[in-house]
Specification:
two-stranded antiparallel sheet; mainly alpha; 2 strands
Length: 141
């Protein structure tokens, strides 16, 4: 019985050392690095750092409506961060789709459809970000 346990523990230590060696010598792929950098940029552009430091309220219940966007450029609600982060990510996915459409030139119909989707995502993101900024500049009215 003791030999069986000893053999099992030796096999386990070998597999753990092999697993540790594999992880320590592995380098992250370019895709993972790009996704991490873009996620960090979207976090910063969306106002995530402001939200972490100041801890604003999520939204404000007004008379007849709920404000998710703070009606001034000097401050923001927690929902401002979420909304702007989603819109920036939408724009990034639009740019990514436009880039992917150039890779499938051998299938023109597919490339055209991906290009249309990418341009639509980019335009939607731009229009909604501009309207949110306009809402903040005009003071919510």
């Amino acid at each position: 019985m003791s030999e069986k346990i000893k053999k099992h523990s030796e096999d386990m230590s070998f597999s753990l050392s092999r697993w540790f060696r594999k992880i320590s010598t592995n380098t992250p792929t370019t895709f993972i690095i790009v996704v991490a950098v873009m996620a960090y940029a979207i976090f910063l552009f969306g106002g995530g750092l402001y939200t972490l430091i100041n801890r604003p309220i999520i939204a404000y219940p007004g008379q007849n409506t709920i404000y998710f966007l703070y009606p001034s450029l000097s401050m923001q609600f927690g929902a401002d961060t979420l909304i702007s982060g989603i819109l920036y990510a939408l724009g990034f996915f639009g740019i990514l789709a436009i880039y992917q459409s150039t890779k499938s030139a051998y299938k023109p119909k597919q490339a055209y459809m991906i290009l249309i989707v990418g341009v639509a995502l980019l335009l939607l993101s731009y229009i909604f970000i501009e309207s949110a900024i306009n809402f903040k500049i005009t003071g919510g009215g």
